[in-house]
Amino acid sequence: MKSAVVYYTFGGSTEKEAARISAGLGADRFFVREAKKRSLLGAFIPGGLQAMMRKTVEIAPVKFDLSAYDRICLCCPVWAAYPAPAFNAMLALLPTGKEVEVFLCSGGGAARKSDAQTRRLIEARGCTVIAIHSIATGTAPGKQKEA
Ligand SMILES: Cc1cc2nc3c(=O)[nH]c(=O)nc-3n(C[C@H](O)[C@H](O)[C@H](O)COP(=O)(O)O)c2cc1C
Questions:
Q1: Pocket of ligand 1, candidates 20, 21, 78, 137: which has the most ligand atoms within 8 Å of its Cβ, to mutate?
Q2: Of the residues 53, 79, 112, 134, which should be mutated to test ligand 1's pocket, given the most ligand atoms within 8 Å of the CB?
Q3: pLDDT tens digit sequence for 66-82
Q4: What's the Cα-to-Cα distance from 141 to each of 29, 44, 74, 84, 120, rounded to whole Å?
Q5: pLDDT digits over 97-106, tens only?
Q6: Could you identify the atom of ligand 1 that is nearest to the CA of residue 14?
Q7: Domains of the chain (ranges, CATH numbers)
């Protein structure tokens, strides 16, 4: 089975997890970058609100094609109990018919109420959700730094 790990990171902790996951799977790893550089303040305002409203953000053009992969792992930080807005841009990259595994990195690492909607959004892309994992990075919102 050919796997890809697609990730966004603001402070770098999700990147570490994505590296660990891709090494374990022998997967290709792809970074999704927001088109406009976000400040730390911009992560909280409007980033947190954008995450809660499931707003998508413009991302830099991607050079990878996910259609060649069977399983796609999406790794993203949690902002305000929702996946960061870049996650919504990642969803738009999903070809139909893929197995999708989600790794959400947060300070606390608890599962979220928003996970049910996250699952539905992936299913709406015609994909199967294998699991939504919660990873505790130990970096609380107040300790967040830009990478
Ligand atoms: C705007 C913002 C909101 C956050 N909201 C939460 C939250 O609701 N719950 C939580 O446990 N951590 C929250 N965090 C902490 C991040 O999810 C955590 O530090 C994560 O590891 C960041 O990943 P990164 O270093 O890849 O950007 C928030 C961080 C930011 C910047």
A1: 78
A2: 79
A3: 999 999 999 999 999 99
A4: 26, 9, 21, 13, 26
A5: 999 999 999 9
A6: 26
A7: 3-142 (3.40.50.360)
